[in-house]
Q: What sequence folds into this?
């Protein structure tokens, strides 16, 4: 593990050269997994995550079925080799908590009422972790849900904001996450309804408000990338197949 | 059969596959001894000490290696330890469930593990740091991302490709300089299924389901055998087993030449 | 006409009276609820999803696979989150409970009608109607349920086209399973045509394109077809 840097922001630039309000690069690939009903691979900075959605499908055991709608389930998991120290396979307290808050980030947006007695399963695998795996996972899962044809109020977009060197910054990288003063992961819909909010650290009320406003602009940028990925997927398939014709 | 897909296959589909076999054909047009397309990309994950992403037809898996100092087993105080773990995570197939690994997953992991261990391809005595106290422990974690059939062969290719790509991170643990993991051989497990009296390599998902029995054979560069497992309840005859060994040796040698030798 | 691609949450109309399938009302606007293509009609705006599961409705004709036999029901996989129940009394002829396995066993394919779906999504099936039967030959392929209407075509026009040009038997279940019968090469060609329709499901002028596609395929298969014509009856 690296040492705490003396300064996080030098001449307005962060350790990786970003501005305070700049996201790390995001790369999206839709439907990489053919067994799943919907899937998405996403790279965000040095994070690599893959999300798959199965469902709606029959829910077992039967006593967990809901007669008035689908049950959304989520499993967030980190590959044992995704971080410096090997993680023992299987759920941890951390992964159980993150699975729960991610599930709840989607419960509001998924129209569960159309599918009584079923489960909609969201699986997120972190293959390589930097900071922000839960937000990366949410962005991938949101696209996997759309890819699976699940009806939703809208896409969910997520990013973290935090505080380093007394300043509010967007999308913490690993050093900022480990040694900074605060970390606030946020997920919201495109009409700015917050569906996930956590905080770790210390901030004043003014700082927190500023952080949420910054998270909003971050989520809007992420949303644009998500939307573009879906539109492009359709366009690419359309063009590729149009080409077969002549 | 080997990776536990539970859905019922329509009888007409089964008949179709059977009729194809009688004509010497497979549903995807392959010959009986032909593998699907293989890609192996090493250095896929930089937090791992070695890694490989493998695709075999529709099957996709990621192998990550972690090398950490730890205590040796008391009966082998001068030898390092290799631990192979396979995660059939529910992301990879509608038939995998969350929770502790089931017998199928454990069997696959142990078969891949034995194939590597028994080949002696990793010289475990070179992994001793202080006899009786500290040795290198090699964790081979196989993360299945999409089960398109024949997980075992893909896992075996991925495991050895990742091991060939592994660095012992000595510097990180103040134990001298980083060195490449010494790998002496390239063992490969090859699965053959028996169906309709014919033997075929690299079963797809549908073929796994209809196979009456299958035989996994791990072989090394010199053709020696370092692991074998028969799956399924149907018996095999000695001449069938010997034929399968020959097929596995040829296929492994082919894969070794094309993908794994530098 | 080119249809616009939308993602969940996109506004598709500002007239809430126009809200059709695949949409919902948010405030005073109509939004897409699924990733798909906008279908703007005179009275409704709907969004045709690009993917999704088959949800059964009464009177749907579907292709099922028997997955279990219980005391008096066959449980049928209908390519849906919900399994269908085929009660012994819904078999075309009267049979004794202990004889159920003689008539339909696990793995058998059946052409069935959805009789009723209740609020708890209990799906009752029947085989007591014309054409409904066990399928003993041919092959089954699947297509995304959302693309299935294109394989059927306007009041069955696409199926008729495929059947007559290819010369095969075909039944398209509303659950996305397609049953094709005939000689092996006819079935192979039919499956290729279905894959083509699936890939081009959302493009205009599909009928003409399918005809051209089949013509091109037939040319390359010509010699083989002549051989099979002598041997097969279809």
A:
């Amino acid at each position: 593990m690296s040492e705490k840097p003396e300064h996080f922001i030098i001449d307005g630039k962060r350790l990786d050269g970003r501005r305070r309000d700049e996201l790390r690069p995001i790369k999206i690939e839709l439907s990489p997994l053919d067994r799943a009903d919907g899937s998405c691979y996403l790279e965000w900075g040095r994070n690599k995550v893959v999300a798959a959605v199965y469902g709606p499908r029959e829910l077992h055991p039967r006593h967990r079925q809901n007669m008035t709608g689908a049950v959304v389930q989520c499993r967030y998991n980190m590959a044992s080799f995704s971080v410096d120290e090997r993680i023992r396979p299987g759920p941890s307290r951390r992964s159980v908590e993150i699975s729960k808050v991610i599930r709840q980030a989607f419960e509001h947006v998924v129209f569960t009422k159309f599918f009584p007695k079923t489960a909609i399963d969201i699986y997120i695998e972190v293959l390589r972790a930097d900071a922000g795996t839960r937000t990366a996972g949410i962005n991938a899962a949101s696209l996997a849900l759309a890819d699976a044809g699940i009806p939703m109020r809208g896409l969910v977009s997520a990013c973290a904001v935090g505080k380093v060197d007394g300043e509010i910054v967007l999308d913490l990288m690993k050093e900022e996450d480990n040694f900074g003063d605060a970390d606030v992961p946020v997920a919201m819909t495109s009409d700015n309804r917050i569906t996930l909010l956590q905080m770790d650290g210390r901030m004043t009320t003014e700082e927190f408000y500023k952080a949420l406003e910054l998270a909003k602009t971050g989520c809007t940028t992420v949303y644009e990338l998500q939307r573009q990925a879906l539109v492009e997927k359709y366009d690419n398939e359309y063009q590729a197949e149009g080409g077969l014709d002549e | 059969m080997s990776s536990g897909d539970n859905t019922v296959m329509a009888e007409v589909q089964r008949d179709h596959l059977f009729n194809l076999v009688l004509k010497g054909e497979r549903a995807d047009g392959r010959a009986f001894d032909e593998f699907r397309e293989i890609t192996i990309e090493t250095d896929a994950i930089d937090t791992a000490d070695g890694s490989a992403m493998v695709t075999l037809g529709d099957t996709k898996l990621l192998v990550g290696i972690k090398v950490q100092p730890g205590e040796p087993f008391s009966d082998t105080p001068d030898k390092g330890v290799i631990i192979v773990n396979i995660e059939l995570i529910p992301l990879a197939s509608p038939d995998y469930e969350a929770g502790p690994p089931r017998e199928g997953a454990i069997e696959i992991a142990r078969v891949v593990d034995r194939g590597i261990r028994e080949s002696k391809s990793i010289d475990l005595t070179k992994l001793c740091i202080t006899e009786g106290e500290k040795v290198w422990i090699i964790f081979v974690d196989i993360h299945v991302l999409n089960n398109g059939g024949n997980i075992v062969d893909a896992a075996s290719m991925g495991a050895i490709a990742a091991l060939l790509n592994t660095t012992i991170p000595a510097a990180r643990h103040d134990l001298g300089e980083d060195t490449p993991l010494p790998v002496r051989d390239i063992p490969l497990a090859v699965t053959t299924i028996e169906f309709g009296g014919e033997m075929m390599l690299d079963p797809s998902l549908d073929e796994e389901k209809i196979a009456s029995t299958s035989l996994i054979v791990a072989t090394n560069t010199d053709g020696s055998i370092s692991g074998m497992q028969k799956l399924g309840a149907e018996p095999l005859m000695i001449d069938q087993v010997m034929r399968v060994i020959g097929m596995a040796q040829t296929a492994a040698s082919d894969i070794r030449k094309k993908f794994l030798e530098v | 006409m080119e249809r616009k691609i939308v993602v969940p949450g996109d506004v598709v109309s500002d007239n809430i009276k126009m809200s059709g399938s695949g949409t919902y009302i948010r405030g005073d606007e109509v939004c897409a609820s699924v990733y798909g293509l906008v279908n703007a009609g005179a009275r409704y705006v709907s969004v045709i999803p690009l993917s999704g599961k088959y949800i059964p409705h009464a009177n749907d004709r579907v292709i099922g696979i028997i997955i279990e036999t219980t005391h008096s029901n066959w449980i049928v996989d209908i390519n849906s989150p919900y399994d269908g129940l085929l009660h012994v009394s819904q078999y075309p002829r009267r049979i004794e409970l202990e004889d159920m396995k003689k008539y339909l066993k696990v793995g058998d394919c059946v052409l069935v009608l959805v009789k009723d779906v209740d609020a708890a999504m209990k799906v009752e099936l029947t085989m007591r109607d014309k054409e409904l039967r066990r399928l003993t030959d041919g092959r089954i392929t699947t297509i995304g349920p959302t693309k299935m209407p294109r394989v059927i075509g306007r009041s069955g026009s696409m199926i008729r086209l495929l059947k007559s040009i290819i010369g095969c038997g075909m039944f398209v279940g509303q659950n996305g399973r397609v049953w094709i019968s005939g000689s092996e090469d006819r079935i192979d060609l039919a499956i290729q045509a279905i894959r083509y329709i699936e890939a081009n499901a959302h493009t205009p002028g599909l009928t003409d394109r399918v005809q051209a596609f089949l013509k091109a395929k037939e040319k390359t298969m010509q010699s083989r077809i002549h051989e099979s014509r002598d041997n097969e009856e279809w």
